[in-house]
Structure formats: structure tokens, C-alpha cells
Amino acid sequence: MIKTMLKIPHWLLAGALALGATLAQAADTIKVGVLHSLSGTMAISETTLKDTVLMLIDEQNKKGGLLGKKLEAVVVDPASNWPLFAEKARELLQKEKVAVVFGCWTSVSRKSVLPVFEELNGILFYPVQYEGEESSRNVFYTGAAPNQQAIPAVDYLMKDLGVKRWVLAGTDYVYPRTTNKILEAYLKAKGVKDDDILINYTPFGHSDWQSIVSDIKKFGSAGKKTAVVSTVNGDANVPFYKELGNQGVSAKDIPVVAFSVGEEELSGIDTKPLVGHLAAWNYFMSIKNKANDAFIKDWHAFIKNPKRVTNDPMEAHYIGFNMWVKAVEKAKTTDPDKVIDAMIGIEAPNLTGGVAKMLPNHHLTKPVFIGEIQADGQFDVVWKTKGLVEGDAWSDFLPGSKDIIADWADPKIKCGNYNTVTKTCSGQNYK
Amino acid sequence: MPSRTLIRAGFLTLALALLALFGASLARAAADDEEVRATLAQLRDADFDGKTELIEKLVTLNHSRVAAILQALSDSRLYFQEDPERIVIGSGDGAEIAIEDAVSGEALGQAGKRGLDRITANNRLRSLIENRLAGLGLASADPQQRKAAVEAFLRNPDPVGAAPLRARLEVETDTGIKELLALALALADLASDDATVRAKAATALGGQMQTEIRGPLTRMAAEDSDPAAREAARIALTRTEFRLQMLGWAETLFFGLSLGSVLILAAIGLAVTFGVMGVINMAHGELMMLGAYTTWLVQQWLPVNWSLPVAVPLAFLVAALVGIAIERGIIRFLYGRPLETLLATFGVSLILQQAVRSIFSPLNRSVASPDWMSGTILLGPLEVTLNRLVIVGFCIAVFAVLWLALQRTRLGLEVRAVAQNRAMARAMGVRSARVDALTFGLGSGIAGVAGVALSQLTNVGPNLGQSYIVDSFMVVVFGGVGNLWGTLVAGLSLGVANKLLEPWSGAVLAKILVLVFLILFIQKRPRGLFPQRGRAAEV
């Protein structure tokens, strides 16, 4: 503890020096931090998001910038290294004095930077679907909470496809474990028996799926319609789907609905054996409307490659960025406290023809789509929710969190972890 | 024996051809084009329930193009073209695809995909189409096609479809199809309202292994309202229990062998560089990655079915050249300093990874599998996946070639001589520096070849090598450094052990258990399964 306390003056000194040196420059630009891995295992997903933010900044500058100033991107590379995320976040906030940060992909990287953002009072926009059970004053969650992806997907399988038996397959880390816990509780509440749920975890980057696919086949041969709900992450999906295709598990027999497989992941796979498998997202590239067509056109022009795809986390950054711009315009300053307060209630159009609204719990309203994989690596929407679904930070289906709410607007609450029964705010765990 | 998917594809082509003939001969009864066009026009805006009705209507229309249209809908190749307004069938990939008129079949040249609106199908529609196309094939003169029609019914038994099957049983002459028809009818009877009919059907289905039949039986044994029917279903299931269990064990064994052969492929190049030369090469995984990327590059130029035989020698060459460059450029200055070699090659591995990321982008590349490596094949009663089978064979071939190269060629002799006693080998006139470079090149080249095999199983991306490097060292150390046979036995036994543990402990724990076992084993026998004997080993 003493060590960190001693360190702070050094940091402040360095920060002050840097500020002094770049004062002239800082006066006419607003700095926007981009905290996405450009090397290491997560580069595959995060590089695209870095480019997305750069494109959005570019477009905003073409429109004349913000508050009369140009936006300037500050890109750092946390290299898929979780502790480095925290260091780079500190660098962005203290040394570069950025007004806002767009970044992170994995939950562990978000957990790693969270104390930094709370300590230094920064603003983070987090664009990926995640397990929920969190709401920080300094973070805006523009991806889906479990009730905006997992629960509607299960509802679709249950009602439209008549699924009775469930395989919950995931990679062994926090997002799949929490999501599966929520789903298991939800399924049981719907009357599914223990025998009809099979839960399976695999290590990161698992590449030998023979036994597991064979087990799924056996589990699915009990004469009841079976589906796989997959929270398998990243690279492990390719061998998983390949094995499914090779062992002849077609979507007609046992559909797989995935929460981490989007257009970007499919562009690295031969999709022919996967036709008909499902994914649940809040955005698909194939959705046709003017805003999406324009976004895709801009993206292809910016990245100079007409074959590149767009995906859900990109839309999340698109929404998040536009919301931040609106909030700054409303607050007429980039001061974090004022912007954070201005953010709640801000509305920005999404790319699927609707409007996203920032809720008091720092989550968004989103439509939920179920898409089927097509031979060209795109998804065809086969189902969508009637209206917009409000993101729920704390799941109603977990015994520990069903009484917890997050509300940063109500002056009586102002808390991300408020127990409605005991009327206390316990704050985040690391306080 | 071709794979299942192939059979299905073949059958569908046949169905289309025969239906076309059938339609032509019945021209007077066929619906006119306009009626089909009118039905298709509604397809675009219909929801999935509406589409179901429209498909049923199309089937009754008896038009020569119905089968082709339905197949295209099922394959997501049916489009609505906005300008001019018409329904077309597309073929090919890419932004521009070839189109033909859905109703007349007339070719209409190329069209851009953005101007085409795909008519979507979902899984339910695809099942329905498969079923209806099969129904159309039941009256076919070709026994293959009739068989496929009954099999399609077995896959999704629908009480409505049972009546034509019953009618067909009366006139069917082929004994194989007769048996299949009887099974299909018994399966339909399982859904009967009469408990005695259900029990009788269950007894008739006893001894059948297919999941399509075991599934409904299992459900019946658990849930049927009538105790006698439940009992009949239970007895029918027990008749196959023993065989299924045996089959399960055989399957696990095959999974183990196949995982083992992947481990061997990954490790065998290392067995040469680490085992024979004693160089700890942390960039071994990246050499495999280069092999996988070579496969991808080859696929950009050659058709998928021919790409692999070309990719294997090319990958060997690419990886071997890079390997020789690493040896000449870095490793030769570090012989006898294992720690520095480890650090230097680790640096090389990072450089190679980031180089690939910069050149090919950090995204994975999609490497397609050739037709002859897709699907399953029946080995006796055991259904095995073709790609795994090919890789097991490939692994044996690579091992055999390497073993022969080391035992029977002059280079092999020199390699072994330098490995056993460098000073003596030099005294006998062996140019040890050249041998070192070539040996390292050989080991690296084999890593490249392994990369070709891995490209068929996993991601081709910058991280490919990292996920296999630990496994490869594990195999070499377990087998005994400097012993190819040790690598073979170690790889196979680790693979089988992993797969035996997996169903019982889960994939995460299985991996940990194997590592723990290995640590304990190395404590007891530091030199691995087959330690090298002789004077050289003592140095």
C-alpha cells in the first residue's frame, strides 16, 4: 500500500510535465483513448474495433469535430495482457489526459481496468456482450447483458423449435460460467429437469472436440429435441464447428446457438457445413436499412477492403461513440462528472432501424435477433424480439443478485450494487 | 464408400434430373409457368408459416422445376431480383453470381449480390423440403433414390408421410428397401394411439442401432403411459446396449489414436531438432504455422480438392528454408548454450507471429477441407470422421518417411553420427556444420508438413503454433529425447490416455491430469520412456 501511495506523486509529476509540454496541442483537440489489443491472442477480434473507433473519429472530425475542437485518437496496445490493460489505462488517463476511452473485449480485461477508471474518474465504453453482474459509475456497457442475448435465444429455442434437452457448452472462464449459471437457473424455473441439461467446459483454444461432439450426439439421441447453447469463445469455435460438420451433426438435428460467433469469426471458417446453426446478437450485417447500408459503405471505404465484414461489437462502438458525442454536446464540456450525468437518458440511433437509450444502470435498450448461418458466412434473421429489451445489470435468475439493482440517476440510490431488500449500497466488490 | 454428405448430394442431383424427365413426360398435366410464378411471388414477403403453406402448394403443382426451386430455397440460393422483378436461382460465391430464371431455368448472366434479395429459409423449412423432395422420390425407378427417400423419412418421421410408405411396401421388390420400409412403418407406429400397436412396433425395432430409432424408443421407455409398451421399449433397447457400449469404447480408442497422431505430427519435427541435435527450438510451433499459411496460399491458386498434395511439399520447403535460415543466422552461434538458445528462439517465435499478423492480418484465414476429407465413413459398425482418418494415415506416412530417411540415407547416417559423437564424426570427414543446418532444416520442414495437417483441424491464424508447442515438448520428453520410436509411443499413449480420461473428468481436468502424471513420471524416469543408451547419452 505504502508503495502505491509513494508512487502517486511521481505519476502526478509526470502527468503535469506531460500536460505542460503538450498544452498548446491539448488546447485545440479532444483526446479519445483506444484501448484494444493489437497483438497477442485477442488481436483477432480487437483490431477491428480499434479501426472502427478511428473511423468514427474521422467522420466526426469531417463534421467539424466536437465543441469546436478536433478529436484526436490516442491508440495504445495492451497486447492481450490483462495487467497491461490496467497500466495502459492509467497511461491514457494520467499521461494522455484522454476525455474518454473506448476499449476492452474480455471480461478479465474489463475487471483489470475497472479500479483504474474508478480511481482516476475516467469514462470507459465497453462494447462486448458480457455476463452482467456489474455496474460501475465510470463504465458504459454498450454490449448485451445476458437478458439481451442468452435468455431470448433460449426462449426462441424453447418456443419455436420445441427444444427439450439442453447442452450448455462453454470455455472455462467467467463469462460462460456466469451465463450458464443464469441459463441453468432459468431453464429449471421453466421446468426443465436436471437430466435434460448437460454442462460442459473446455480450456481456452481447445482444438480436439471429437469426444465432446460425440457426447453431444449421444445426449441428443434420447428422442427429445436437443440444442446446444454455446458460449465457446474465440479460436476454439473453428475446430468445434468443423467437428460438428464432420460428425454429421446438422442444424436440422441438433442446432447450435452461439453467443460469441459473429460475422468476423465466420470469415475464418469454411461455412458450408454450418448452414442453419444459429447465433443471437443485437445486430447482423445482413440487416437491411439505410443506416446499416451507409455504415457498411463507410467501413469498406475506410478500411479499403470491400470484403471486410461488420459485427455486433462494432455497432456497439457506433452507438457508444454517438452517445458520448451527444452527451458532451449536452454538457458543453468533456469533464467526466458532467458527461457521466449527461449520458443517462441519451438516445442514439442503432444500425438496425431503432433507437438505443442509455439506462440509469449504464446499459442500453437493444433489439435481440436470432440469425441462421448462411453459406456465404452471413446470418439470416429468423426471429427477433417484439420491441427493445432493457439491459439488466444484475440477473433476476441468480439467487445472489435478484434483489440487486443499479441506478446512477436516482439521487437516493446513486449506486451500481443496491440491495432493494436491505436498502443498502455495497459498492463493487473491490472497494 | 463415399461420405454421407456426398450420398445426399448425389441423390439430390439425381432427384432433380429424374424429376425434370418425369415432368417433361407429363407435360399435359403440369401446371403452367404462370401459376408457379404467382406462388413464388408470394414467397418473398411471407413469414415462415406462410412459406410452409407455399411450399406445400408448390409440391402439389407438379411442375418440372419445383424440385430445383425447393432445393435452391433450402440451400439459400433462391433470390428475388429487384430490377427487373423476378425470382432467380443463383450459383457461385462472391459479389457477382451467375443467375438463372427460377421457373424457366433460362440462364440470365451475372448479377451483383446487393441487388438480389435472398428468400430466407430456416431449419424447419429445410426439414420440410428434405421430406417433400424425398416423398417425390419414393415412386422413382431408381432403388438408390427410393432408399434415400425412406431414409429421409426415418430422419424425421411424420405421420402424414406414412401412408405413401405403406402403399409402397405392397409393391416394393427390393428386399433391402423392404426391410427399411418395415422399420420406417414401425417407427411411425410408435406414435400410434393404440398401446398394443406401440408395443408391437417397439419389439420390431429392437436391435436397431440408429439414433433415429433409439431416440423415440428411449423416450417411450421413459414416458409412455402404458406399462406394457414401456416394458417392450425397454427390452428393445437392452438388445443393443452391449454392442453400443463396445462401439463406444472403440470410438474412444479411435479418438485417442487420432489425437495421438496429431500430437506425433506436432512433435516429430521437434524430435529431430531437440531430440537429435539437442536444440531447444521455441519457434517450432511457428514453423507449423508457416506450413498452415502455405496451405492457405496454395488454396488461393488451386482448387481445394488438389491443394493438399501440392501444399505438403511446398510447406516442407518453406518451413525448411526458414528453419535453415534460423539455424545459420542464430542458433549456430549458440551451440552448447541451451538457455540462450531457448531465449533466442522464443524471440524468433514472437517475430514470426507478429510478421504473420502484419502481412496476413491478425484475422484467421479460412482453409477449406477437400471433399475427400469431409464427412464420415463406416469402418465396420464404427462411424469415423474422414479427416481424422486421413490424418492418422498421414502421420504414419510421415513417420515412416522420416525413419527411412534417418536409417537409409547418407544424410541420415551423418546426422546420427554427428548426434552421437561430433568430434569423431568430424574426424571421419563429415562436414558437421552442413549436417547441422540440414538436420535443422529437416526438423523444421516436418513441422511445416504438420502445419498442413493442422490447417484441416484448427484455426489458421498467428496463434496456431503457441497452442501446440507445449504439447510437442511434452511428447518428446515423455518418449525419451533422441528416440523416434519413443515419440511415436509417447504421442499415441498420451492421446489415448487423454481421451479415456475426458468423458470421466471433463476436458479441462483431463489435460491437467495428464500433465501431473507426466511430471511424476519424469521424476521417476528423467530420460523418458526410451532413454538413449551409449556413450553419447552420458555427455
Layout: helices, strands, pairs:
The complex is a heterodimer of chains A (431) and B (539).
Chain A (H helix, E strand, L loop, with lengths): L1 H20 L1 H6 E7 L7 H20 L7 E7 L5 H14 L4 E4 L3 H14 L3 E3 L12 E3 L8 H11 L4 E7 L2 H16 L7 E6 L7 H10 L6 E6 L5 H10 L9 E3 L4 H4 L11 E4 L8 H14 L8 H20 L4 H8 L3 E3 L5 E3 L7 E2 L2 E5 L5 E6 L4 E2 L13 E4 L7 E5 L4 E2 L6
Parallel strand pairs in A: 1-2, 1-3, 3-4, 4-5, 6-7, 6-8, 8-9, 9-10
Antiparallel strand pairs in A: 10-14, 11-12, 13-16, 14-15, 17-18, 18-19
Chain B lengths: L3 H22 L7 H11 L4 H14 L4 H9 L3 E4 L4 E6 L4 E6 L5 E6 L3 E3 L4 H15 L5 H13 L6 H10 L3 H15 L5 H11 L5 H13 L3 H50 L7 H18 L2 H26 L8 H23 L15 E4 L2 E4 H23 L1 H11 L1 H6 L4 H24 L10 H14 L4 H22 L1 H18 L10 H4 L1
Descriptive notes:
The complex is a heterodimer of chains A (431) and B (539). Chain A is an alpha/beta fold and 431 residues long. Chain A contains 13 helices and 19 strands. Chain A folds into two domains: 2-145 and 290-367, 3-Layer(aba) Sandwich (Rossmann fold); 147-284 and 370-390, Response regulator (Rossmann fold, 3-Layer(aba) Sandwich), CATH 3.40.50.2300. In chain A, strands 7-6-8-9-10-14-15 form a seven-stranded mixed β-sheet, sandwiched between helices. In chain A, strands 2-1-3-4-5 form a five-stranded parallel β-sheet, with helices on both faces. In chain B, a hairpin with a 4-residue loop joins strand 2 (86-91) and strand 3. Chain B folds into three domains: 4-126, no CATH class; 138-246, no CATH class; 263-538, no CATH class. Chain B contains 22 helices and seven strands. In chain B, helix 3 packs parallel to helix 5 and helix 4 runs antiparallel to helix 5. Chain B is 69% helix and 6% strand. Chain B has a five-stranded antiparallel β-sheet. Chain B has a two-stranded antiparallel sheet with strand order 6-7. The model of chain B is unreliable at 21-29 and 535-539 (pLDDT under 50). The interface between A and B is large, with 56 and 66 residues.
